[in-house]
Amino acid sequence: MSRSVLVTGGNRGIGLAIARAFADAGDKVAITYRSGEPPAGFLAVKCDITEPEEVEQAYKEIEEKHGTVEVLVANAGVTRDQLLMRMTEEDFSDVLETNLTGTFRVVKRANRGMLRARKGRVVLISSVVGLMGSAGQANYAASKAGLVGFARSLARELGSRNITVNVVAPGFVDTDMTRALNDDQRENIVKQVPLARYAQPEEIAASVRFLASDEAAYITGAVIPVDGGLGMGH
Ligand code: NDP
To answer: Where is the catalytic site (predicted)?
Structure first.
C-alpha cells in the first residue's frame, strides 16, 4: 500500500537516498529543501526546520496533497565542528537547534496525525558519534545523543498507539558532509572502520526502510548502527 512519507533534508545526501528507497517501493514521498532546485520525482516542500511556521506550512501542504504523514524520517542535520575551547555559543546552539529541537518540531507535528490514525513510524537519523563521542564535535555529538533519549521516551509514550520510534546511527557516509573533511581525516577514519570504507547513502536508506516496514512492527526504541563496525559495543 502506498503510504504518505516525509523525509526532512530529502533533497540531497542520505535523505535523498532514503526518499528514493521509499519512492521505489511505491510510497508517496515528500521531501523538504531550503534553497535551490529540489530533485524531481517527489513532493518538494520548502522548509527550514528551525522555523516553526515553515514546519506547519510544510505539513499543511503535504496533508493536502498526500494525506496524513504515516512515516516520518527526521534526517535533516548540520555540523559546526570546533574544539570546545573555540566553540562559540552559536556553534553549539545552532547545531542543537537544527539537529535536536528541529527534530522535536517535525516529530511533534507528525504525531498529531499519527495519534488520530492510531499508527505511525518515526525514524530519527542520529550518528555513531552520538554514542562514541568525537573530539571537535561536542555540539554535534550532544545533539545526536539527545535524539536517542528523545526517541526512547517517545517509544514509551506512543507505543500503545501503534506508533514506533526508532533511531538509525550511521557511521561515516560518503556525502557532502564528509566530503568537507580533508584527505588525512578521511584516511584516518577509514583506518578505524572494520569494513574499511565509507558507507553509501543507499546502505543507510535500506535500514530506514526496514524500520518503516511491516516486518519491523515489533521494533521500537531501538538504535540500529549502520557504521561498518565502527561503534561496536556502544
Ligand atoms: P548533507 O550535509 O549532505 O545534507 C544535510 C541535509 O540536511 C540537507 O538536505 C540539508 O538541506 C538538510 N538541512 C540542514 N539543516 C536544515 C534545516 N535547518 N532545515 C531543513 N533542512 C536542513 O548531510 P548527510 O546527507 O550526510 O546527512 C544527513 C543526516 O545524516 C544528518 O542528520 C547527519 O547528521 C546524519 N549523519 C551523516 C553522516 C555522514 O557521514 N554523512 C554520519 C552519521 C549521521 P539543504 O540542502 O537545504 O542544506
So the answer is: 140
